[in-house]
Amino acid sequence: MTFDYALRLTEVLMSFAFILQSIEHLKSFNNERILFSLRIVLSVLLVIDFYSAWVIALLFLLALIILHRFQGPYNGGADRMGLLVLVCLCLAHFAPTPYWQEIAFGYLALQLVLSYLISGWVKVVNPDWRSGRALRDVFQFSTYPVSDSLRGFADSPRLLFVMSWSVMLFELLFPLSLFSTESLVVALVIATCFHFANACIFGLNRFFWIWIAAYPSILWLQQRVFTSA
Amino acid sequence: MLNTLKLLLPALLPSWRFFDFIAPSPRIQFALLRSEDEVPNDWVLFRPRPAYLSFTQMLGRMVWNPVWNESLFMVSCAERIIEQPTQHSEDEILKRIRFELAADMLGDMKYIQFRLVTVQRVEKELVEEFVFQSRLEPIVR
Asked: How many C-beta neighbours within 10 Å does residue A206 have?
């Protein structure tokens, strides 16, 4: 995957994620409606590649206003990832040389790998995660399960033990997939299924779309580092 | 400006510590009152989750999930209040509860108030703890 193609694909996928997020605010309060209508317009302009670099810069300024409006991300980790993608795209466009453009886009790929590796690490060092107890707590009393019937999973400790270890092992082993394009593609398909399950069970749909938007960066970096070597 | 940059920093250098430990989970409950002196007794859980969601409904929420995402934002506000109460978080929760309530539910009520209750596991038991009560907010019609 070429740098230009990966960058363009990221722009389109990020715009799609931003449009989905922003439409949800159109029935909200006036000030939210204005901010997110503007975001939809800018995202559409980015999809059609209309002065992309400047549109991304405007999206970044708007993101700062939205961050200030909600005194933090509206939707936690998903919005933070959106900001990270946006900042890396912005830097990749405005960096003075191709070398620094690649560094900026490569930083997004690096953070994507860390997003899995660190989440796996912080879980595996916690005895509650290793025993399956933590995931049981998530189902039993956390805010996330989208329906009461899903809380019933808390009564299946063996299943949750297997699920906990599946998640931890996948997250910890994710960096190893970088050694070949094929293994990376398989890992990204598994990761997509993981985010899809999280979206269905915990209502974290924003994570699904914005994480996918970062995938071209890792596909590009993998080929840049391992195929060029 | 400095505050906004401070808010931006965790996005540029993320910690990625998702679900590293399962923290006490806040629940938002609200009460409607006729006067400032009334003591709220009937606390109502804000947006109780549905008993069941079909797979088709879950699929639909992949692209259209405004109520749930707003609820997650309100939980973030609740967590911020528990950590360090701020006017902004209290305002956001009060405003969104008020926006949700239909006119017929408000009746002759004059004020709205919410409280935060956390749920956590202590040993094998689930324990609820009352942690915060908001100011009284006049209901503007």
From this structure: 25
C-beta separation of A56 from A47 below 8 A: no
The structure tokens 């722009």 sit at A11
Is residue B30 a part of any domain in this protein?
yes
Decide if B16 is inside a domain.
no
Rounded to 5°, the CA angle A164-A169-A175 comes to 140
CB–CB contact A205 B66 (8 Å): no
Is the residue at B15 inside a domain? no
Alpha carbon distance, N-terminus to C-terminus of chain B: 35
- Summarize pLDDT for A21-50 with one digit per residue, the tens: 999 999 889 999 999 999 999 999 999 999
Considering only CB atoms, which chain B residues are within 8 Å of A141?
25, 119-121, 126
- pLDDT tens, position by position, B44-66: 999 999 999 999 999 999 999 99
Q: What is the ipTM of this complex?
A: 0.94
User: Which pLDDT belongs to residue A105?
Assistant: 98
Question: Which is nearest to A61 in space by CA: B1, B137, B62?
Answer: B1
Say if B7 falls within a structural domain. Answer: no
* Mean pLDDT along residues B87-93: 97
User: What sign has the CA pseudo-torsion B13, B19, B23, B28?
Assistant: positive
**CB-based contact A108:A85 (threshold 8 Å):** yes
Contacts of A197 (CB under 8 A, 6+ apart): none
Q: Closest-CA residue in chain B for A70? A: B88
Q: Is B122 on the interface with A (CB under 8 A)?
A: no
**Ordered DSSP codes for A147-180:** SGGGGGGGG-HHHHHHHHHHHHHHHHHGGGGGGS
Domain count, chain B: 1
Could you list the residue range(s) of the whole structural domain that residue B39 is in?
21-138
